[in-house]
Design brief:
seven-stranded mixed sheet; 6 helices; alpha/beta; about 190 residues
């Protein structure tokens, strides 16, 4: 499988939170769908792995060519079965990866008590910081896998995400500073 350098960098980062930005067609959704497979199949598969991919609304998730279609075609060769009722893929290893939506803050209660090893937020700029932090609070592993948050985005200036990615932008142009790509920063 051929990966672009940005996809490779995204998939190989050891950081707890990683944001992959870029224009439409840049492979962001592909990378965020590919990332959890390392725990679902192959030598590092773990039967207790629980991952979740999120889009803001169901139409965004299920439209033709959207994340659901992409995941179905990507995971089928690995024997993953999609359960429409629970909206999750079940892999031969026992690992599970769910596809979820979170349109309103009132929907957060649906995820109380959830435990995720992997949390992928596609188009994170469409979510609120409150939603992201709440979901991050559900990243606690009983499988022993280090929980991670992976986000894709084209953050608008008014998105909660914009100030978080600002250190990776060129201050004079506002575009990504390639020399900062992959640089890990710590924040509280």
């Amino acid at each position: 499988m051929h990966l672009s350098q940005p996809q490779y960098d995204f998939l190989s980062s050891p950081a707890s939170w990683v944001v992959y930005g870029g224009a439409a067609g840049g492979g962001k959704s592909h990378a965020i769908s590919l990332d959890p497979l390392r725990h679902c199949q192959g030598p590092h598969a773990h039967r207790d792995f629980r991952g979740a991919l999120f889009r803001r609304t169901y139409p965004q998730l299920s439209k033709p060519g959207g994340l659901l279609d992409h995941c179905k075609s990507m995971y089928a060769p690995y024997g993953a079965i999609f359960n429409h009722t629970s909206s999750e893929f079940r892999f031969r290893s026992g690992a599970k990866l769910s596809l979820n939506t979170l349109q309103f803050d009132k929907d957060l209660t649906s995820y109380q008590g959830a435990q995720f090893d992997y949390l992928g937020i596609d188009e994170a700029n469409q979510f609120t910081l409150n939603q992201i932090l709440f979901l991050w609070g559900r990243c606690r592993s009983k499988s022993g896998i280090k929980p991670v948050l992976r986000m894709t985005s084209n953050p608008d200036n008014d998105s909660f995400l914009f100030p978080l990615v600002l250190p990776w932008l060129n201050p004079s142009t506002g575009y990504p500073d390639r020399t900062q790509s992959g640089v890990i920063r710590h924040f509280t």
